[in-house]
Amino acid sequence: MGTSEYLKHHDDKKVEQAVVKYLEKTFDHNGQWREKPKHVDGAILAYALMKLSFVETDRYKEALDYTWAMIKEYIGEDGTVEYRKSMNHYRYVDTVGFICPFLVAYGLRYEEDACIDLSIKQILTYERYGMLTNHGIPCHAYLIDHKVPMGLYGWGRGLGWYAIGLIDAWYELPTEHPYKSELKHCISRFAKAAIRFQQPSGNWNWTVTRQESIPDSSSTATVGWFMQQAASIPALADECSASAERAIHYLMKVTRRNGAIDFSQGDTKDIGVYSNQFGILPFTQGFGVRLIQRYNAARKSGKQEYAAKKEGLNESKELAH
Question: What positions belong to coiled-coil segments (predicted)?
Answer without folding.
Answer: none
